[in-house]
Specification:
85 residues, alpha+beta, Mth169, Chain: A, elongated
Length: 85
């Protein structure tokens, strides 16, 4: 069974209150080396068999039409989960 990962992030001009809250909490935990945080979404799509270029294309279409809101989000990654290990 293969897995395709889709990563979605808020567009840079969109406020990210969750990321801002995390960015504010990190220094209180002694983690002050980070200058900002943006929080996104990760989807894992399972497929029968191996991941093919055609399945990656279908996942990209799903990402652009169903998994993200193109007004406020960008699809930043669509890839075979096994290739990223």
């Amino acid at each position: 069974m293969g897995r395709i990962v889709v990563e979605v992030m808020p567009k840079p001009e969109i406020l990210d209150p969750q990321g801002k809250a995390v960015a504010g909490a990190l220094p209180r935990l002694g983690l002050d080396q980070f200058t900002g945080v943006r929080q996104g979404k990760r989807f894992e799509l399972s497929v029968d068999g191996e991941v093919t270029p055609e399945l990656i294309d279908a996942a990209r279409k799903a990402a652009e039409t169903a998994l993200s809101n193109p007004i406020i989000e960008d699809v930043v990654g669509v890839y075979d989960a096994e290739e990223q290990r």
